[in-house]
Amino acid sequence: MSVVSAIIGTAERVPLPDVVIRAAIQRLCSRMATRLSGLGLGDDAAFAGRMMLRPIAEGAAAGHDEVPAAFFADLLGPNRKFSSCFYKTDATSLREAEEEALRQTVEHAGLTDGQAILELGCGWGSLSLWMARQFPHATVTAVAASQAQRASVEEEARRRGLLNLRVVTADMNVFAPDGQFDRIVSVEMFERMSNWRKLMTRVRSWLAPEGRFFMHVVTHRSGSHLPDPADRDDWIAQYVYTGGLMPSHHLVRQFDDIFAIEKEWCWSGTHYQRTANDWLANFDAHREAIEASLHGVHGEETALWMRRWRWFLLATSGLFGYADGTEWGVSHYRMMAAE
């Protein structure tokens, strides 16, 4: 038994100090970084080929989607952005980081008022609600992964008086929207999709002429990786990207016969590290309320799931903060249909 798996096994039974868990995460990240460091474009081509053998989506990525909205209201910032935020300065608050990330997303996607916009994987509605407010003459269609998400976003849209936002719940394996869109945007959903070629082909067919597809995805600098939840040493697979994948920054270029990259951006992993640390601070500050929310889902296993959520936050912080944010980070791509 390795040191990491021993720590995981112990932590399943009893709480461990954060310093012990962070040390185990650091060790795991070092091992992963070493393994991925030798990978390149040829490996991405092989990885993309293996993806073609899988369905578009293979189930929820980490069991997050049906956790009550109240839990995320306590955990996240005021915009309920369950994805990387962007910290302009050392003094930037979580609210400010949410808003800066949303502002950059709108800018990078090339959004303007009057467009027909589709968001794939809207989560708890941070971007969809932001777009609907910023662009009152646009029509925004948001695709939620769960009924809980849909109900929460719809309720918030009603509270804000946003009449230009429609929310649907759909399985991406069969989703087929009506009409075409000027912009299609996706924030941290494609990590949960297993067959990018099949989904991107569909996305292209949903775009209007001259339309653009924007994707925000977490990436490794050089190598694509399929986490293995059966590996007891792979804490990231078990608690961060269960059922998902970790693409390289260049993996999207394996699909350049479908989409051509018009412009791209990279965020340092330190932004996600700080995001996770702020979520962890909220988790600890609202511990009683969060425990009550989880009890409704997990019952007698609530204490275990409280620990697992802290592991998730610590692992997210450790992964993206590794090597000062130079190994794992966030990639933005604005794409147009390939000729």
TrEMBL record:
Gene3D superfamilies: Vaccinia Virus protein VP39 (3.40.50.150). InterPro entries: SAM-dependent_MTases_sf (IPR029063). Pfam families: CMAS. SUPFAM superfamilies: S-adenosyl-L-methionine-dependent methyltransferases (SSF53335). It comes from the Bacteria. This is Cyclopropane-fatty-acyl-phospholipid synthase.
